[in-house]
Amino acid sequence: MSAYLHCLSHTPLVGYVDPAQAVLAEVDEVVSAARTRIAVFDPELVVLFAPDHYNGFFYDVMPAFCIGMGATAIGDFNSAAGPLDVPRDIAEACADAVLQAGVDAAVSYRMQVDHGFAQPLELLLGGLAHKPVIPVFINSVAVPLPSFARARLLGEAIGRFARSTGKRVLFLGSGGLSHQPPVPELAHVDARMADRLMGSGRDLPANERQARQQRVISAAEGFVLDQHSLHPLSPAWDNHFLDLLEQRRFVELDGMANAELSTLAGKSTHEVKTWVAAFAALAAFGDYQASARYYRPIPEWIAGFGSLSAHSLT
Ligand SMILES: O=C(O)CCC(=O)/C=C/C=C(\O)C(=O)O
Ligand SMILES: [Fe+2]
């Protein structure tokens, strides 16, 4: 086996608004088993597809995709802070290969990332810098968003590059499934927040950071009491999505418009494009076998929470 994959929902709410102990233990077991499988695979290179939540990417310049040549996590919501171990020469070669393949991804030599990147690295690899990782940002909240088709093509191009390295490669996808936490939208905010979204939010004062986190926590507490206070979770759509990935039918998502996905499953569900990119990258190695599927709607985390592994059969 030369390539392994793990896709996992993330949540900034863990430790702030948690589900019952039995559910926490169940999720811990799912994550711990995935971490063990990854340790056995022992990746030489990790490619992490993840979104951002206006912590590193803003409307001053908002790329659809960005490949990090260097990256630092800010440590929002108690996630780990500090530099990732990005192998710059490999990341540069990857970016070049992606552009040559016709996918115009941006690059960043100082990528700032949040819990969307930090959480899978902590949970699945034991820390931000335990393995060499190429961070790949997929814009999942700041409209206009890339399509499923473009995320798939990005993943395919990165998968072909990763295969050419001859290394044991782990692909990670972070985020989703159905969910719509309160993330500000440029079209619906006042001038001050618009300024934040356009870039002044890059270094938030501590009191604003605190207020912003509290807004998400309060929304989760409200959602537990009334699951129509935000866009409801959509287990039916989530399970259909997992079926498509397991059965290597994710190309069927190419025809789905972004607005349709938002309506069906919530505006932050676009984070699942990280899963599509990761599966498309794995598929560049040949046939794959998916395993260890897990799904549970967890209102405390405002999340259709999922986890899925796969390995290449070559
Ligand atoms: O700008 C804000 O207030 C963003 C809040 C935020 O970071 C929410 C994140 C939620 C998730 O990452 C998620 O549920 O996927
Ligand atoms: Fe998120």
UniProtKB/TrEMBL annotation:
Q: Does the keyword Iron apply?
A: yes
Pathway(s) of this molecule: Aromatic compound metabolism; 3-phenylpropanoate degradation
EC number assigned by the record: 1.13.11.16
Q: Which GO terms describe its molecular function?
A: 3-carboxyethylcatechol 2,3-dioxygenase activity
What is the catalytic activity of this protein?
3-(2,3-dihydroxyphenyl)propanoate + O2 = (2Z,4E)-2-hydroxy-6-oxonona-2,4-dienedioate + H(+); (2E)-3-(2,3-dihydroxyphenyl)prop-2-enoate + O2 = (2Z,4E,7E)-2-hydroxy-6-oxonona-2,4,7-trienedioate + H(+)
Q: Which cofactor does it need?
A: Fe(2+)
Q: Where is the Extradiol ring-cleavage dioxygenase class III enzyme subunit B domain?
A: 5-306
Enumerate the active-site residues. Answer: H115, H179
Q: Does the keyword Oxidoreductase apply?
A: yes
EC class of the enzyme, as a word: oxidoreductase
Keywords, A to Z, come to: Aromatic hydrocarbons catabolism, Dioxygenase, Iron, Oxidoreductase
Instruction: Output the superkingdom of the source species.
Output: Bacteria
Check the record and name the InterPro entries matching this protein.
DHPP/DHXA_dioxygenase, Xdiol_dOase_suB
Biological role stated in the UniProt entry: Catalyzes the non-heme iron(II)-dependent oxidative cleavage of 2,3-dihydroxyphenylpropionic acid and 2,3-dihydroxicinnamic acid into 2-hydroxy-6-ketononadienedioate and 2-hydroxy-6-ketononatrienedioate, respectively.
Subunit field text: Homotetramer.
Family under the similarity heading: Belongs to the LigB/MhpB extradiol dioxygenase family.
What protein does this entry describe?
2,3-dihydroxyphenylpropionate/2,3-dihydroxicinnamic acid 1,2-dioxygenase
**Species per Swiss-Prot/TrEMBL record:** Pseudomonas muyukensis
Lineage start? Bacteria, Pseudomonadati, Pseudomonadota, Gammaproteobacteria, Pseudomonadales
